[in-house]
From TrEMBL:
The lineage of its organism: Bacteria, Bacillati, Actinomycetota, Actinomycetes, Kitasatosporales. GO terms for molecular function: isomerase activity; ketol-acid reductoisomerase activity; metal ion binding. This is Acetohydroxy-acid isomeroreductase. Keywords: Amino-acid biosynthesis, Branched-chain amino acid biosynthesis, Magnesium, Metal-binding, Oxidoreductase. Pathway: Amino-acid biosynthesis; L-isoleucine biosynthesis; L-isoleucine from 2-oxobutanoate: step 2/4; Amino-acid biosynthesis; L-valine biosynthesis; L-valine from pyruvate: step 2/4. Belongs to the ketol-acid reductoisomerase family. GO terms for biological process: isoleucine biosynthetic process; L-valine biosynthetic process. It comes from the Bacteria.
Length: 504
């Protein structure tokens, strides 16, 4: 198999753009000013200009992203002459839910997948990665001349590159990639009806632009989704950072680390509930909130002197093992091995579905911990905080070394975690999220989560009693990520995501 993406270390292009419709603005980042577009409902009147030439948007698929994006686009474009139609496989089990949300055959907004593709000016391919890889020839072959291909992930282009292929000529290829799960995309959009700025950030990319209008179309798509701000990337860069991130700090590492820490606290004498609070509850609750509001450095600053000492020793013990694992994951993604694994698993899992990960003893403590939340505030455990922040920083540093733009680095490594995924994990638990996420993410978390668990048990926790590494701590305190997060914080939504206990 040839490399599925641009080789590691390839510099990303300047992360700037202009628009004939919207007014982007500069955002100061460590590598120089980048360009972002602030979203908001006040921009909705500009959407017809951004979508010029588009009369029908076909949303293909009703998974997490399809379900959210179809509804957001329909609501944002209400009153225009642009129709949003959902395309599903004949007999799809999702059709009933699509109808329940107003997409029906009777009103012309629900149809057979290939029929919707053929009738649409903008085709958003939001079906599962493996399904898209399997059926892309017939889907792309059904496109009407000049239709724009829309993606929310770089998986398809990575697959085409692995096969030595490319998207069909004559079609614009754009991407808008929300930095959060579909439920976050929809829930914060709904909150935005009453709170200006609520939403999930998105990146956008333009892979092909035959008529020169792709940037405005991608920006219009992002604004219509309710993104508070949108930054530019490439589909190669988005694919690498997204797939690596979900196998590391966004999902796989979180699962492995909290299980390792729970076992550590149990061996130290804690009862199951206390051990759960000190590990999982800290990560998904107070630690996530602290990072969201005060950045990574704010976690350490919020501890007392003894807590900082523990944090420093834990950070020192965890950083290098975490960095080694993130680098290994990155190489596996860049070589196409993770993509190949997803496609192989699709055939295997048709006969043998994945067993759940939420059956280990740790997760039995979750209901009691959740029930105690109203009665007590769990403090940040400095050992857990040091291990988690070190892992998050390790991913940040690896992405920076590989040439990703800073907007992408902080969104894929920090903001998506603390403002979208961890709140949902807090509402249920980490294991629930692993067992109910996309198949691509679930496979990655199940492969790499145990590696993080083993590294924590074998390398990190035995070393936490050693003195802190002054060099590592100095590098952490001087890390450019703090400036990047402070700059991004100016664009942070004014409200936290509202979670009702459901991750589905």
């Amino acid at each position: 198999m040839t490399n599925a993406v641009t080789p590691p270390g390839t510099p990303a292009p300047a992360n700037t753009f202009t628009s004939a419709v919207f007014r982007p603005e500069p955002l100061a980042m460590p590598g120089g000013d980048e360009t972002v577009l602030r979203g908001g409902r006040h921009l909705f009147p500009l959407l017809p200009r951004a979508f010029a030439g588009v009369r029908r948007i076909g949303v293909i698929g009703w998974g997490s992203q399809g379900r959210a994006q179809a509804r957001n686009l329909r609501d944002s474009l209400a009153g225009t002459d642009i129709t949003v139609t959902v395309g599903l496989r004949p007999g799809s089990a999702s059709a009933a839910d699509a109808r329940a949300h107003g997409f029906t055959e009777e009103n012309g907004t629900l149809g057979a997948l290939l029929d919707v593709v053929a009738a649409s000016d903008l085709v958003l391919l939001l079906i599962a990665d493996a399904a898209l890889a399997e059926h892309h020839r017939e889907i792309l072959g059904a496109l009407r001349p000049g239709a724009t291909i829309g993606l929310s992930h770089g998986f398809l282009l990575a697959h085409l590159a692995a096969e030595g292929g490319a998207p069909p000529a004559g079609h614009a290829v754009i991407a808008v990639c929300p930095k959060g799960m579909g439920n976050s995309v929809r829930r914060l959009y709904e909150q935005g009806e009453t709170t200006e700025g609520a939403g999930i950030n998105s990146s956008f990319a333009v892979h092909a632009d035959p008529d020169g209008r792709a940037v405005d179309l991608a920006l219009g798509w992002s604004v219509a989704l309710g993104s508070p701000y949108t930054f530019r990337t490439t589909l190669d860069s988005e694919y690498r950072s997204d797939i690596v991130g979900e196998r590391a700090i966004l999902l796989g590492a979180v699962h492995g680390l909290v299980e390792a820490l729970w076992q550590h606290f149990r061996l130290g004498g804690d009862d199951p509930v206390t051990a759960y609070e000190r590990s999982c509850e800290v990560v998904t609750g107070p630690l996530a909130r602290t990072v969201s509001r005060s950045g990574l450095a704010g976690v350490r600053e919020g501890l007392d002197e003894a807590g900082r000492d523990t944090f420093d020793r834990a950070y020192s013990a965890a950083y290098r093992p975490a960095r080694d694992l993130v680098a290994e994951i990155y190489d596996e993604v860049a070589a196409g091995n993770e993509l190949r694994g997803v496609l192989l698993a699709e055939r295997r899992l048709a006969e043998r579905p994945m067993s759940p990960v939420g059956t280990s003893p740790m997760w039995a403590a979750a209901p009691e911990v959740h029930a105690r939340r109203a009665r007590r505030e769990v403090p940040v455990d400095p050992l857990t905080a040091g291990v988690f922040v070190a892992t998050m920083t390790a991913q940040v540093d690896e992405f920076a070394e590989r040439g990703h733009p800073w907007s992408e680095i902080v969104n894929e490594s920090v903001i998506e975690a603390v403002d979208s995924l961890l709140p949902y994990m807090h509402a249920r638990d980490v294991a629930f999220m692993v067992d109910n996420c996309s198949r691509t993410a679930r496979l990655g978390a199940r492969r790499w989560g145990p590696r993080f668990l083993a590294a924590c048990q074998q390398n990190v926790l035995p070393a936490v009693q050693r003195p802190a590494d002054d060099g590592l701590l100095a590098a952490f305190l001087a890390n450019p990520v703090h400036r990047a997060l402070a700059s991004a914080a100016r664009l942070r939504p004014t409200v936290d995501i509202s979670v009702d206990g459901s991750a589905g």
